[in-house]
Amino acid sequence: MTYVLDRPYTADPGSIAPATATLSLIADDRTRVRHRFTGDRDEDFHLDLPRGTVLRDGDRLTDLAASIVVTIRAKPEPVYTITATSAHHLTRLAYHLGNRHVAIEIGQTYLRLQPDPVLRAMLLQLKAQIHEDVLPFSPEVGAYHGHAHDQTHGVPERSQSRSTTDGLPAQNG
Q: Across residues 43-58, what is the average pLDDT?
């Protein structure tokens, strides 16, 4: 039987707890919204989630009938764990990785990213300490995740503004 997981699970007070399962996924798979996966006990799951959904470790999903609750787990995967000589050095490393739009997990004393030989060379040139690990990877989602696109881009409309015929605001005075 294939379970179609299409919504987050929220328990109703007084309800009977449905069967439970676990689905362990690497970071890239936790961004897939329409995909088939095999659960940790060989269950068949089909994700049918809203576009832009990013699953996090500990999220719980269910199907339309709430017949099963599936807990998402961050599956260990190969990663680089980056450490630095100081907080300032770590911030500099994060800056350079951010300029390359790399998925990064940010910890208090480390940065974590998926292995990449070009990034490794850059980090070594910047004097970073690189540890190759196999760990759960939970990168930052990003500043625009879940951003509902509107015409104002979050800027409040000016009720007093005037515009010229070329679409630019008129100069006061």
A: 95
CATH topology of domain 77-135: Alpha-Beta Plaits (3.30.70)
Q: Which residue spans of the chain are classified as CATH 3.30.70.790?
A: 77-135
pLDDT the model gives residue 156: 37
pTM metric for this prediction: 0.77
Alpha-carbon span 150 to 143, nearest angstrom: 16
User: Helix, strand, or coil here: 145?
Assistant: coil
Instruction: Give the separation between CA 114 and CA 66, rounded to whole angstroms.
Output: 35
Contact 19, 77 (CB under 8 A): no
Task: DSSP letter for 166, please.
Answer: T
Domain 2-74 has CATH 2.60.260.20: yes
Extended beta strands in 26-154, E state = 34-38, 44-48, 60-62, 68-74, 77-83, 105-106, 111-113, 129-135
| Cα distance between residue 54 and residue 59, in whole Å | 10
Given a contact cutoff of 8 angstroms between Cβ atoms, the answer to whether 82 and 92 are in contact is no
21: part of which helix (H) or strand (E)?
Answer: strand 19-25
Q: Which two tokens stand for residue 146?
A: 């879940």
Q: Name the 3-class secondary structure at 136.
A: coil
